[in-house]
């Protein structure tokens, strides 16, 4: 039920045509989108987490990963379950909105907390959470779907911790705010931090909300982004294909959304 409630909210948000500070300049929106332009790498992508919502594409580069951190659980943990079961990677889940992990695998640890900078008791910062659970310098995976809180979480993340994540799989929310003159600089700054040490290697729009188009630019309000640390990437000249052959609709009852050409 929670997923369908979220779907309705996201559709409503996508139809909102009121942008803080007015409409941003087309060139500025295009420049921000360019920050997330995906590149082709030598390592093939694999799908982890099943065929529907909760399944993601990431590079087949999981050997030596110490742990996966997953803020935002909802009622699906197929991604973490497969990492634990097939790759023997310990997975740490956190979400104060649910009472327990949907998976009982022994390598999965659940904490009833939100991840963020709020000082209240049911919050913990990503920086502190990683330090408590995986002190050291080993490589990690970050899988994050926190309904828009990702902007706050990354704003308080140090470069040292960011660099520990070999792979980041993140669902970005409310991206139609790229058209807002007031919000665009903050989103662009977030994009720059995301890609400071990582290449974008895959994009997939969540089909629960239609793309929003302004000035000839189309923006999916929800976008799944896979990033891989630059020191692990060997770039190639192979042409990327969207959708990828392993992509699947998040909502099976709806047609998938094609990634707009301006994002490729």
Automatic annotation (TrEMBL):
Pfam families: Methyltransf_21
InterPro entries according to UniProt: FkbM_mtfrase
Domain Methyltransferase FkbM positions: 141-181
Identification of the protein by name: Methyltransferase FkbM domain-containing protein
Lineage, top ranks: Bacteria, Pseudomonadati, Pseudomonadota, Alphaproteobacteria, Rhodobacterales
């Amino acid at each position: 039920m929670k997923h369908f409630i979220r779907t309705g909210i996201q559709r409503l948000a996508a139809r909102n045509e009121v942008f803080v500070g007015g409409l941003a300049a087309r060139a500025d929106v295009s420049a921000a989108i360019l920050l997330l332009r995906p590149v082709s790498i030598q390592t093939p992508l694999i799908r982890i987490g099943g065929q529907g919502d909760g399944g993601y594409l990431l590079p087949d580069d999981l050997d030596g990963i110490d742990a996966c951190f997953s803020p935002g659980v909802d009622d699906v943990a197929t991604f973490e379950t497969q990492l634990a079961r097939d790759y023997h990677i310990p997975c740490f889940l956190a979400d104060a909105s649910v009472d327990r992990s949907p998976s009982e695998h022994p390598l999965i640890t659940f904490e009833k907390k939100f991840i963020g900078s709020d000082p209240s008791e049911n919050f913990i910062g990503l920086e502190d959470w990683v330090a408590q659970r995986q002190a050291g310098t080993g490589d990690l995976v970050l899988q994050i779907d926190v309904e828009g809180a990702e902007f706050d979480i990354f704003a308080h993340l140090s470069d040292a911790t960011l660099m520990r994540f070999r792979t980041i799989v993140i669902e970005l929310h409310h991206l139609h705010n790229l058209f807002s003159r007031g919000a665009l600089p903050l989103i662009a700054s977030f994009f720059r931090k995301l890609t400071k040490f990582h290449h974008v290697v895959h994009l997939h729009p969540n089909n629960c909300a239609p793309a929003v188009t302004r000035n000839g630019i189309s923006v999916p309000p929800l976008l799944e982004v896979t990033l891989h640390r630059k020191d692990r990437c060997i770039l190639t000249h192979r042409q990327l294909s969207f959708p990828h052959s392993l992509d699947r609709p998040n909502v099976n009852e709806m047609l998938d959304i094609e990634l707009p050409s301006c994002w490729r």
